[in-house]
Specification:
168 residues; alpha+beta; OB fold (Dihydrolipoamide Acetyltransferase, E2P); 5-stranded mixed β-barrel; two-stranded antiparallel sheet; 2 helices; 8 strands; 26% strand; elongated
């Protein structure tokens, strides 16, 4: 049975790749240039073929190595509080949705996770937790913005002396 033209071409390409691979292997074997088997990292972080000088090595204490996230120093609780606006809230059934002001994502809220009373278009602060159905807003409470009030200090009544009195 006669082979098709495409089948013959594929066979030619396969034989050519095989010969090229064999030629590369022979050239690599016969060349004088040899790749280093091991690479080392110097004290600047660069890869080198020469091993480091043992005299320049530093001694590191085992306690100084941190493999994971460092423990908090207790300066305060880490908080992931977000701010948003109540897009919809049905008070009778105690559920609704909050729209995050930073990301514009919407999160479901349940009446159990609300501190105080909220209604539509209230600005709230909340935290996000995972639930079996996705991300849920928890610890929801009305957000009260604290605006800085600048006091205008009025100067006390000062009596200006006439220039004639000061000249005397």
């Amino acid at each position: 049975m006669a082979d098709s033209f495409q089948k013959k071409e594929r066979e030619k390409k396969r034989r050519k790749r095989k010969e090229d691979k064999k030629d590369k292997k022979l050239n690599k074997k016969n060349s004088d240039h040899k790749e280093p088997e091991f690479m080392y990292v110097d004290h600047f972080g660069n890869l080198t073929a020469t091993p480091p000088d043992p005299a320049n090595q530093e001694e590191i204490e085992l306690e100084d190595i941190q493999i994971s996230i460092p423990k908090s120093d207790g300066s305060g609780p880490m908080s992931f509080v977000k701010k948003g606006v109540v897009k919809f809230f049905k008070a009778e059934e105690q559920y609704g949705f909050i729209k995050d002001t930073m990301t514009n994502k919407e999160y479901y809220i349940n009446g159990k996770n609300i501190k105080g009373v909220i209604k539509d278009n209230d600005k709230v602060s909340f935290e996000i937790t995972d639930s079996p159905r996705g991300k849920v807003a928890t610890n929801v409470e009305v957000f009260i913005e604290v605006k800085e009030v600048k006091k205008v200090v009025e100067p006390k009544d000062t009596v200006k002396k006439d220039s004639s009195e000061t000249a005397e």
